Amino acid sequence: MINIKIGVLALQGAFMEHERILTEAGAVCTEVRRPADLTGLDGLVLPGGESTVQGQLLQKSGLFAPLRELITDGLPTLATCAGLILLAQKIRGSSVIHLGTLPVTVKRNAYGRQLSSFVTEEPVKGIGSFPMIFIRAPYIERTAENVEILAKVNGNIVAVKYGNQIGLSFHPELSDNPNIHERFLALCRD
Ligand code: GLN
User: Fold this and answer.
1) CB within 8 A of 169, min separation 6: which ones?
2) Is there a catalytic annotation at residue 31?
3) Residue 113 has pLDDT above 70, yes or no
4) Burial 148-164 (b: 16+ CB within 10 A, else e)
5) 45 Cβ closer than 6 Å to some ligand 1 atom
6) Is 29 noted as a catalytic residue in this protein?
7) Which atom of ligand 1 sits closest to the CA of residue 109?
8) Other CB atoms closer than 10 Å to residue 146's CB: what's the count?
9) What per-residue confidence (pLDDT) applies to 137?
10) 6 forms bridges with which residues in the sheet?
11) pLDDT tens, 39-50?
12) Is 81 a catalytic residue?
């Protein structure tokens, strides 16, 4: 797996945890903060954090347009939590659209205050049972027909794949299970 270069968006949020797990799996990580950091990537990770802040920083940094273009051109992209919100074509109850490359509707902070953070274990298609850590997480309310649903929790969609884009409500980088990142790296290698 040597020479797989993954850009991890490092404007805000839990980017270091993705770098750790990807590096352990054999990838080389580059922190993405400005357009020049996007050169020569085999894959891209959009971490969790705060999507409103991340969206603003995408604009300020000049990353918005080149990043969006790379994703629509097919660069394998793994987005977790706030990253999923950045990709979504629609955010329930909001007119804001960030990158808008993934044809799903997400509901932010979907689990409310009482149950804002929790851990569960459910199957993920093609991966098997996976420990899912949710932190003020969104879920996916609706998908276009050609979006593949990879996992549900309590009937709500929490993982999808749409061509080169994988969107997760939960945080695989905070678990000890590298299987999702390894599967993603396999996608980047192809
Ligand atoms: N609640 C955050 C948002 O709406 C996402 C939380 C997370 O990334 N853990 O952006």
Assistant:
1) 81, 84, 110, 132, 134, 137, 138, 139, 140, 153, 158, 159
2) no
3) no
4) eebbebeebbbbbbbeb
5) no
6) no
7) 1
8) 8
9) 96
10) 29, 43
11) 999 999 999 999
12) yes
Q: What is the pLDDT of residue 47?
A: 98
Q: Find the 48 Cα to ligand 1 centroid distance in Å.
A: 6
Reported residue count of the chain is 190
The predicted pLDDT at position 43 comes to 98
Catalytic residue chosen out of the listed positions 17, 18, 29, 81 = 81
Nearest alpha carbon to residue 173 among 187, 184, 162, 186: 184
The rounded distance, in Å, linking the Cα atoms of 84 and 138 is 8
Q: Would you state the pLDDT for residue 2?
A: 58
Decide if pLDDT at 12 tops 70.
Answer: yes
CATH topology of domain 5-189: Rossmann fold (3.40.50)
Ligand 1 in reach of 82 Cβ (< 6 A): yes
**49 CA from centroid of ligand 1 (Å):** 5
- Looking at per-residue pLDDT, the higher value among 2 and 139 belongs to 139
Tell me which amino acid residue 13 is.
G
**Amino acid symbol at 64:** F
Cα of 121 vs centre of ligand 1, distance in Å, is: 20
Q: What is the pLDDT, as a whole number, of residue 116?
A: 80
